[in-house]
Amino acid sequence: MYWGFYAAPALAGSKPDLGVAVAKKLAKRAVDRNRLKRMIRELVWTAQASTLKKDVVVKLKKPIGRETRGRLRKKEKELLRSQMSGLI
After folding, report:
1. Which end of the chain has fewer CB atoms < 10 Å from its terminal CB, N or C?
2. Which residues contact 50 (CB under 8 A, 6 or more apart)?
3. What predicted TM-score, i.e. pTM, was given to this entire model?
4. Ramachandran angles phi, psi of 21, nearest 5°
5. Cα-to-chain-centroid distance, residue 57
6. What is the pLDDT at residue 72?
7. Residue 20 has what DSSP assignment?
8. What is the CA radius of gyration of the chain?
9. Measuring CA to CA, which residue among 27, 16, 9 is closest to residue 64?
10. What is the residue-averaged pLDDT of the chain?
11. CA of 24: how far to CAs of 20, 29, 64, 85, in Å?
12. Considering only CA atoms, which of 62, 70, 72 is closest in space to residue 35?
């Protein structure tokens, strides 16, 4: 599992918050870190708008792109997206 997913109940009367952490040590290229953050934001915001009414922090726990010389490929993106969807 590549992701750490932490949730806490949102305060009454406030909108749920989101925190995303993708370390440079785990995803070398800035392009890939930004792409992962956008993907996470999209998935969590849609879940928070419909069913998930909690504050959420998502953290990348394992390095990505080791087999592809540090680049995030389509196959890896789909794997990461499916794991993240499974957590939500």
Report:
1. N
2. none
3. 0.77
4. -130, 115
5. 8
6. 67
7. E
8. 13
9. 27
10. 81
11. 13, 8, 11, 23
12. 72
Give the residues across from 54 on adjacent strands: 9
CA distances from 83 to 1, 25, 32 (A): 7, 21, 17
**How many domains is the chain partitioned into structurally?**
1
Tell me which residue range forms the domain holding 7.
Answer: 3-87
CATH at 40: 3.30.230.10
Q: Which residue carries 């392009």 as its tokens?
A: 31
Confidence category of residue 68, pLDDT binned at 50, 70, 90:
low
Angle formed at CA 1 by CA 24 and CA 42, multiple of 5 degrees: 65
Structure tokens at 67: 């087999």
